Structure formats: structure tokens, C-alpha cells
Description:
Blueprint (H helix, E strand, L loop, with lengths): L2 H9 L6 E2 L5 E2 L2 H15 L4 H9 L9 H35 L28
Antiparallel strand pairs: 1-2
Amino acid sequence: MPVSTLHFYEAQGLIESERTGGNQRRYHRSVLRLIAVIKVAQRVGIPLAQIKEHLAGLPTGHLRIASDWSSLSSLWRAELDQRIEKLTHLRDQMASCIGCGCLSLADCPLRNPQDIAASGGAGARAFE
């Protein structure tokens, strides 16, 4: 991992280091696992702000244990399941919409999602 990444994570408050007399950073062994968790979370698309927020919710004052990581995993799994559901729905809409070739403003859920004026029929309308 590039040193710049470690410095960035530290600047973001995700990890901590101690300084030696020569001002070199030294990381506790537990930081290695934390970095691995952060990298995995990033790889699946969890934003760093969310990672930081969830890490802050873990108990402090002890080395993190398997149940701590399990709780993070459960949180992120639920978020990933929601994202997968949305992407699957979008993919299915895209296949039917682009597949028909019309890209109609009246019927296309991709070009005109949640159309509130569609129920009033064709033509322009003024909304108050």
C-alpha cells in the first residue's frame, strides 16, 4: 500500500499512528486489520465517510474482535443488498426501454422517472 494512502487515512481519522523520536510513523498491529477492512469496504463501494462513521460506532478501549467486524459486515451487507436491488431494477428498466428503441418521454421510466404529469394525459401543463 502506498505511504500516501496511509497518510490520507490518518488525515481522515480512519487510522492512528505513533511517532518515533525521529518523527517516523509507527502503526499498531491492529491497524493492519483495520486497513484491510477499509480496503474491502472501499472495494465494494462503501464511501470513506460512511466507513469512518461506522468505525466510530464500534466499541473503543479494546482490540476489535470478530463480533465487531461482524457487526460492520452486517451493516454493509444490508446497504449492498439495497444497492444491488436498485441496480437490478435499473438494469431491467434499461433493457426494456432501450430494447424497444422508442425512448419515449411518455413511457420511458429512464428518461422520465416518476412522471407526475403523465396521469393528466398528453400535452403541456402549468403547475402551481
